[in-house]
Every structure is written in C-alpha cells, then in structure tokens.
Amino acid sequence: MIWKGDEEVNMRRYLLGDVDEQRREQLEERVLCDRAFAERLSIAQDHLIDDYIFGGLSEAERQSFEKNFVLNEERRNKLRIAQALEVYVTKEFPPQRAANYYTQVASDLWRTAVSFIQRHRVWATLAFAMILLAVLLGPGVVRWLMPRTISPLDAQRARIEHELADLNRDPSRAVNNATIDLALQPMLLREGGETKRAVITSDIHFVRLKLELPQAKYDRYRSVVKTVEGVELFAVSDLKPEADTGVRIILLRIPSDFLPNGDYQIELQGIPGDGQAVPVGHYNFRIVRNDFTH
Amino acid sequence: MALTKEEFDELLDWLDPNPGRAADRYEAIRQSLITVFLNRQCEEAEDLADETINRVARRAKDLKTNYIGKPELYFYGVAKNVTHEYHRKRSRVIQPLLPPPSREDLEPYLSCLDECLAKLPHENSELILAYYQNQKKAKIASHREIGLRLRLKAGALRARVFRIRARLEKCIVECLERSIDSNDIKPFII
User: Fold this and answer.
1) Residues 2-61, chain A: which have Cβ within 8 Å of B?
2) ipTM
3) CB atoms within 10 A of CB A83
4) A185 touches A257 (CB < 8 A)
5) Whether the predicted pLDDT of A166 surpasses 70
C-alpha cells in the first residue's frame, strides 16, 4: 500500500500516537524493512523532541507528546541533550556569532570559487567570453529563430470572442435555449448598493445583459468583460444600441459556460467615426451558479 | 530464557549467510523493534525486543526451510503478539513527566556538550549551533538561510545536522558515563 501524504507529517502523527491501526502497521512494517525510512523516522523523532523543547508544538501536540511519547533511556538522554543545546546556544552562540558563521561560510565559498578560476584560467576566460556573447546577441537570435506563435491563452480568448461575436451578431442562435436576463445600470463614482446578480441553474444556457446607456451617443459600442480586479477576460465588438421599454440599452449575450461563479465588471466603450474607443460606463454584476459545474 | 549459541547462530544464518551482513541486519531489526515497542507505549522496549528476537531465534531452524518472505515481517508478527501480551499483563503506567531541568540537572550535559563540540570539526560544531540558535519560527527562517548559504535543500540540511547530532549524542553519552565512573567512591581499605 502506498504511504500517501507528507511523510514527515505522518511520521509525527505516528510518534504522537495519532494514527489508526492500519496506518500504524504500514509504517512499522516499513521501519523494519526499509533502513532509509527508519533513519528518516529517527530524524523525525529528533525534530519532534526539538519542537517539544523549543516550544514548536501546538497545545494538542504537546499533550500527545507528554502522554504517548514513551521515554526509554535513549530518548531521555535525547531530551536532556536538546535541553542542554537550548541553554548552550543561548549562552555560547549569540546572534553575532551566528552572523560571523554565515559570513565565514560565504567567504569560504568565495575563496573556493576564486581558487578554481585561477587554476583553470584559460577555460574560465573562454567561458566568460561565451557568456558575454550570449548576453549581447542572445535576444536577437531568439527573436529571429522563434516563429510567431500565439500563446494558448490568446488562442482560447480568440475562440471565445469569435463565438461571442457570432452570437451577438445573430441572436437567433440563442432562440429555444433558456436565457436569463439581467438589467444593469452604469456604476457612478459615489454609488453604493448591492451588486446585481444572476443565478444560473443547470438549464440556463445564456445570460443576456441589458446595459443601460447613460446617453445613446454612438452607433457602435464595444464591451470588455473583466474580473473585478481588472483582468480582461474577453471583449465583444460591434454592438448596436437597442430600445427596451423607452430606455436605450446595449444587449450583450454570453453563453453561461463562459461565466463561472464570481464578480464581474463590464467596461462599455463607444466607438466614434475615427475608431478610437471612448469609455462610456462601467457595469458590475455577480454570477451565482447552482448547477454544481463551476 | 537466554538463547543458546546454536540458536543465535541459526538466527544469523537465516538472516544472511554472510556473518557480517547478518550481524548488521540483526542490529537493524533490533533497533526497529525497540522503536516499534516504544511507539506502542511499551516502557520496557529493549527487553521486549530481545524477547521477540529470542522467540524467533528458537524457530530459526524451522523458518529457514519453511518460511517464505522477509524475515523482518516475521519478526514484526511476533512483536505484535508480544505487545498484546505485554498490555494484557499490565495496565499502562502513566509515566511522570520529566520536570523541567534545573541548572544542576543540566550541568553534566552542558559540560559534556562543551567537550564534545570541541572534538567536532569546527565547521560541524558551528553548523549545529547555528541550526539551534533560534527558536520556533525564527529557527525555520535561520534554517532556510543556512541551507541557502550551504546550497543545501531543507531535507539535506536536516540530514546533515542529524548525522552531526548523532555523533554529538554518542560522544555526550560516553562522556557522561566516564563522569559517573570517575565519581564512584572507591572503598577505603585499612
């Protein structure tokens, strides 16, 4: 049977007496048959003792330790040695000495590196020249060699936007499919209030967002759907204003599969004659799924 | 009842035809059995390990011909029976906690620790002291720092510290035993 999960966590639970019989037997068979595993258990035992002495156990673990960690002479000695180490390092190895140790290690590594380079001067010079060449010429070479490829994310976005464009150009594609409507007003700077939400059940295929226009100034609009953190998900262009009970709106149709649980924001842009997009308004909404798919 | 030499030799031979490897395997099994008994709340773990070994050794001649499988697993089966018998015979005595040590309790350990650290190569003694220098969360951060500076991953650092500590512990135990022996009062003979 495979010993799953974090090995040290399981070893600790075993040492604290917090495992069921099956797992206990698995571990014990392995202790007997696998010496490397038995050594790792010894290390885990030492860590447990250290954590007990140095206050690294939770209250529950501490109680389990004091109740279940049977002390023979060897373990008693380990405990006392850990206690002695704790006292000794506080007294004899203050932080400054630790800092000096680290500096010494770094200095030793540097001296070793310098000595190696001095012994292999020719190869070191050649290697340095190659690295310099790679740094100077590398980016250009990479750009020249790499074909223009589209990333998988960009490809996916392109597919989504293609489908959305088709759907919003030809709404008949959504006929005979259950659709949920959500009317949204543009967010004003000082506006508060509850975010409107659409509850999507398993029978809903499309979400139809009715974006109320503050003023119908443009013939064409573009909507960019984002997360509330501002990450762009997809955009739909070439949207035309429509009338809905005396109010000018932009109708945005989105397959429900494109909208997992969460909060969204739509940035609506007007497209004037010169093609330069002009922000018109922001619309927030929330999707709540009751279909256990997202 | 103690093992006879013949029984012990049969046992070793069953573990491995090569005497050196057999002894090595025997010792590993014994240590593992002690671990098993300790973690099954058996206070006399060494005695129970020896009892388990004795029972297996008495059947070693028969096992050599009739048993198929890892000897370790056979030992384990016997150990489980020994555990059940142990717990049936006595209800577990809740051991008193080791009280926090006084300075006097720790003095022999500190003295031996000092002596044994001096015997370690300087880099090893500094490493183990740096490793234990901080407590709790600070210790984890300092371990990461030590590991980075020595180009060691956490597991490799811990394994290295464990090996140094094992040598240190062995040295300290020997030092403590020498201290006890030297403090024995010799009989005054007239």
Assistant:
1) 14-15, 17, 24, 28-29, 31-33, 35, 38, 41-43, 46-47, 50, 54-56
2) 0.81
3) 21
4) no
5) yes
